[in-house]
Amino acid sequence: MMGMIVLAILILAAVLAVSAYNRLIELRNRYKNAFSQIDVQLKRRYDLIPNLVETAKGYLRHERQTLEAVIAARNQAHSAAQRAAASPGEASAMKDLSGAETALGGALGRMLALAEAYPDLKSNTTMNQLSEELASTENKVAFARQAYNDAVMAYNTGREVFPTSIIANMAGFAEARGWEIERAVEREAVKVSFA
Amino acid sequence: MDFFEAQERARHRTGWLIALFSLAVAGTVLAVYAAVWLALVYFLNHRFEGIPAFWNFDLFWRIAVSTIALIAGVSIHKTRAVSASADSVALGLGGRLLDPNTRDPYERRLLNVVEEMAIASGVPVPAVHLLPAEPGINAFAVGLDASRSAVAVTDGCLRLLSRDELQGVIAHEFSHLLNGDARINLRLLGLVHGILVIGLLGSMLLRSLGRSSSSSSRRKPGPAGLSAVLFIGVALYLIGSIGVFFTRLIKAAVNRQRELLADASGVQFTRNPAGLAGALKKIGGLDQGSRLLAPRAEEASHFYFSEGVRPFAALMSTHPPLAERIRLLDPQFAGELGGGQLEPVALEQEVPGVAAVAAPGGARAIPLRPNAVRASVGALGDQHIAYAQSLVARIPQRLRDAIREPWVARAVVLALLLDSKPETRTAQLNALVAHDDPHLADNVARAWSALHAAPAEARLPILDLALPALRRLSPAQYGELRTAVDRLIRADSRIGLFEYTVQRVLLRHLAAHFEPGRVDPATGPRVEVADALSVLLSMLAHAGAADPAKAARAFRVAAAELSPGRFHVSLLPREICDLRALDRALSRLRDTAPRLRGEILGACVAAVATDGEVTIAEGELLRAISDSLGCPMPPLLPGQHLAAPAEPIRARAG
Question: Band of the pLDDT at B365, cuts 50, 70, 90?
Fold first, then answer.
C-alpha cells in the first residue's frame, strides 16, 4: 500500500510539473506573439518617416540638421527594433528599444514643431496625409504595446507563483521585460497632427 | 446528410469512441494487474513459501481504481488543456500564429483563402497557424465550435501549392470544422493521452535509471531495489505500448472514412476537383511528402490532411492511400506524380474579388423557404465562395485593411452596434465618451461612417473578419471592450433587434476565446424550451409586422414548422417581448440538440419570410440568430432580396 501511495504522489508530481511547464511555454508564446503585433506597426512607422522627411525637405531647406536628426533617430530605432524582435522581452534589447523610440519621438516632435512655422508645408496634402497616417500608427503602436505589457505581466506573475516557480527556475524561464514609456513623451507623440 | 444530422451523428460517434476507449482502458487495467501479480510472485517467493493465488479481488479492486483514476485524471487534464484554446495543438507542433495584417505575399494569399471560405460558410475567421519548420505538404484544423477554431498549414503547403490547390486543402479542413470532426479529434487526442502517459512514465523511469547508474551517486539503490525499478519501468512501458497500439487502431478506424468524406465535401465547396487532386499529387511526388518533422507529430496524427507519421502497417494508417484518394477525384489518374523537388509557386497578384461573378441584384431569384435554409447550413458551394470574394471586394479597401488591426477592429465592431436612428446613436456615443479611453467615441463615430459606405450585407462578414484581430487583445483590453459593449447596449432602451443580436454574436465568440469556462454570456434563471421558443418566434413575428393580425399569422406559420405536439408555443404580446427575455431564450435554445435547432431555424425563417422573400436586413437578422443558435448559415445569395427594406426591424429593450 505504501508503494502505491508513493507512486501516486510521484505521478501527480510529474503531471503537475509537465502542466506547469506547458503553461509557461504558452504564456511565453503569448507575449512573443504580442510583440510581433508591435513589430508590424513599428515597421510601418519606420517606412513612413523617410517619406515624411522627403516631403518636408523641399520646404524646410534651412533645417537640415533637424531633418537629419530625425533620420538618424529613425535608423537607430529601426535597428533597436530588429534586435528586440529577435529576442522579445530580453531586458537590454527592450531598454534600447524604449530609449531609441523616446529619442525618435523627440526628434519627430521637434521637426513637426518647426513645420508649424511654414504655412506652405502645413497645407501640403501629402504632408497632411502622411502625418495623419503617422498619428494613427502611433495609436496602434500604443495599443499593441499595452497588449504586450499585459502579456509580459501575465508571464512574469505566472513564473513567480509557487509551484510553477520551481519549474521556471529549473527550465530557465527568465523574467521578461515590458516596454515602459514615460507618460509625457507618449502624449506628445500621439498629438502628431496638423489640421 | 445535412449539417444537423452530421452534428447528431458526430455526437453518437463520440459515444462509440468512448466505448472503444473503455475497452482499451479495461485491457490496460488487466495488464497492470497481471504485472503486479507477477511482481508479487517474483518478490514474495524470496521470503515466503508458495505462490499467491492469481485472483485476489481486493488487490484487483485497488489496482483498477488507481489505474482508471490515473488515466481519467490525465485524460481530463489533457482535454482541458487542449480545449482551453484552439491554438494549443498547433503551437505544440511548432506553429506560429499568423498576423491578420501580414505583408508577406504567401501568408496574405493563405489568409485570403481562409477568409473567403469562412465568409462563404458564415463562421468567424479561424486563427491561422504556419508550421515554418515543416517542408512537407500538410495541414490540419482544430476546433471545439465556431468561435474556437484554428487552421494550420506547413511551410510546404504555403509555398508549393497553387491557389486552387491551397483552396482545395482549406476546403477539406473547413469540412472537418463544419461537420464536427475537428471536435471529436480533440476529444480523441485528450483521451489517448491518458493511456499514452503510462508508456511515457515507463520510458522516463528507464531513462532516469540509465542516468543514475552511470553517475557516481552515493545513494545507489541496492540490487533488489534496482531490479524492482527496472521491472516497474519495463512493465509500464509494455503496458503503455499495448494501450498505444489499441488507440492507434481506434484512430485509424475512425479516421480513414472521414478523410474521404472531407475530400468529397471539399470538392462540393469549391466545385473544383482538380485543385484538391493537384495538392494530393504534389504530396505523392514530393520527397518529404506529407510527413511532419515535429517530435510530437504522433499525438495529432489523426488531425492531418494527409498521413503525417509513417505508419507501422497499413492497418494503422490514419489516412486512405494517396492513390485511392486521387483516383476518387480524378478517374483518369494513371499514377503520374509531381517531381521529388518542388519550387515555390509564382504568386499572382492577390486582387480580392477577381473571380467575382455574383454581383448584387443578380438575376437568380431563390425564394427563402425554411427547408432550403436548413439545408444550406454548413453546406456551402462555389457560388458562396465567389459571392464571399465579391463581398470582400465591395468592402472599402481602408476598412478591409483596418479590421485586421486590433486597435481599429475594436472601434469597427463597436460601430456595428450603433443604431440606425440618429438620436439613439447619439445617446450611444455619449455613453462611450465616459469611457476611460478618450479617443474611443471619436474612433467609433468615424468607423460608423466607414461602415456606412460598405454594403449592408457585409456587416456580419465584417464582424467575422474582425475576430482574428480581436482575439489578439490582451485580457485587460478585452475587459474594456466588454464594458464598452455594455455601455452601448444600455445607453438606449430602443436598440434595434439586429444590433442586439450582433452584440450577442460578438460577445459569444469573444467570450469563448477569452473565458473558455463560460461560453454563454446570458444570466438569469433557466427557462423552458417551449417558453424560449415562444419568446423568440413572437419577437420575430412582431418585428416583421406592426399589424397584430399579420404578426399572429406569421407566428402561426412559424409554429407549424415545429414538430407537431412537441412544444406548446403561444404568441406573446408585444409588450412582454423584451431583449433580456430574448437573451435568455437564445441561450436556452443554443443548448438543445442539433436536430431541434434545425427545426427552430426553420421556424425563424418562416416567421420572418411570411411572403417567401426577405429584405437584406431580415436576411442578416436571420443569419445573426442562426449564429446565436450555433448554426453557421452561409450568406443569402443575391437575387432573393431585391425588395427595398419595408419595415425597420426593431423591438423594445427591457
Answer: very low
SS3 content of chain B, % helix, strand, coil (to 5): 60, 5, 35
Helix (H, G, I), strand (E, B) or coil at B630: coil
Q: What is the DSSP string of B261-281?
A: HHHHHHHHHHS-HHHHHHHHH
Write the DSSP string, B10-78. Answer: HHHHHHHHHHHHHHHHHHHHHHHHHHHHHHHHHHHTTTSSS---S--HHHHHHHHHHHHHHHHHHHHHH
Interface check for B517 against chain A (CB to CB < 8 A): the answer is no
Catalytic residue (choose from B173, B259, B307, B457):
B173
Number of domains in chain A: 1
Taking the C-alpha atoms of B546, B548, B554 and B556 in order, what is their torsion angle to the nearest 10 degrees?
A: 160
What is the signed CA dihedral for B612, B615, B616, B618, rounded to 10 degrees? -80
Q: Which of B407, B444, B446, B513 to mutate to test the interface with A (most CBs of A within 10 A)?
A: B407
Q: Confirm if B317 and B256 have CB atoms less than 8 A apart.
A: yes
C-alpha cell at B575: 409588450
Residue B356, exposed/middle/buried by CB under 10 A (0-12, 13-18, 19+)? middle
Cis peptide before A163 (omega within 30 of 0): yes
Q: What is the pTM of this model?
A: 0.82
Query: Residue A170 domain-assigned?
Result: yes
The yes-or-no verdict on residue B600 having pLDDT over 60 is yes
The pLDDT tens digits for B484-530 are: 998 888 887 677 888 888 888 898 889 888 887 664 545 556 678 89
Residue B173 catalytic? yes
Interface of A with B (CB under 8 A): 4, 8, 11, 14-15, 19, 22, 25-26, 29, 33-34, 36-37, 40, 139-140, 143-144, 146-148, 150-151, 154
User: Domain range for residue A43?
Assistant: 17-187
- Whether residue A181 is contained in a domain is answered as yes
CA distance B299 to B315: 18
- For residue B548, count other CB atoms closer than 10 A to its CB: 13
3-state secondary structure of B305: coil
Angle at the Cα of B5 from the Cα atoms of B259 and B598, rounded to 5 degrees:
135
Query: Distance of CA A161 to CAs A15, A154, B247, Å?
Result: 17, 11, 36
Q: Parallel, antiparallel, or unpaired for β B148-154 and B139-145?
A: antiparallel
Using pLDDT thresholds of 50, 70 and 90, give the confidence band for residue A119. confident
Q: Has residue A3 been placed in a domain?
A: no
Q: pLDDT-based confidence at A81, cuts 50/70/90?
A: very high
CA pair distance B441, B434, nearest whole angstrom = 9
B73–chain A Cβ distance below 8 A for any pair: yes
Q: Which range is least confidently modeled, A66-80, B158-172, B446-460?
A: B446-460
Q: Are B465 and B115 in contact (CB under 8 A)?
A: yes
User: What's A130's domain CATH number?
Assistant: 1.20.1440.20
What is the mean predicted confidence (pLDDT) over B586-603?
88
Contact B204 A33 (CB under 8 A): no
**Inter-chain contact B204–A14, Cβ cutoff 8 Å?**
yes
- Residue B56 to residues B34, B40, B61, B63, B64: CA-CA distances in angstroms? 11, 12, 9, 11, 12
Chain A residues touching B399 at Cβ < 8 A: none
- Using a CB–CB cutoff of 8 Å, tell me whether B81 touches chain A: yes
Task: Find, in chain A, the residue whose alpha carbon is nearest to that of B95.
Answer: A29
A192 within domain boundaries: no
Task: Name chain A contacts of B296, Cβ cutoff 8 Å.
Answer: none
| Distance of alpha carbon A83 from alpha carbon A86, whole angstroms | 5
Strand partners, B143: B149
In tens, the pLDDT along B408-420 reads: 899 999 999 888 8
The reply to whether residue A37 touches residue B406, judged by beta carbons under 8 angstroms, is yes
Q: Do A147 and B408 touch (CB under 8 A)?
A: no
